[in-house]
Amino acid sequence: MPQPSPARSVIPHDGTQWAARHMPLLASTMQTFGAAFAGRRIGICLHIEPKTAVLVSYLAQAGADVVITGSPGTTQEDTADALRDFGVTVVGHRSDTLDQHRKNIEQVVESQPDLILDNGADLIEAVIARGGLPGLIGATEETTTGGLRIRSWDSPPAFPVIVINDSRLKLLVENEFGVGQSVVQGFMNATNLMLPGAHATVVGYGPCGRGVADTLARLGARVSVADTDPYRALEAVMAGHRVGDLRDLLPQTQLLFLATGHPDVIGSAEIEALRDGTLIAGVGHMPWELDTRALGEQTTSVRRSGASGQERSVHQLHDGREITVLADTKMINLTAAKGNPIQAMDLGLTLQARSLAAIATGEALSLVNGTQAVPAPIDRQVAADLVHVLTRI
Question: What pLDDT sits at residue 8?
Answer without folding.
Answer: 54
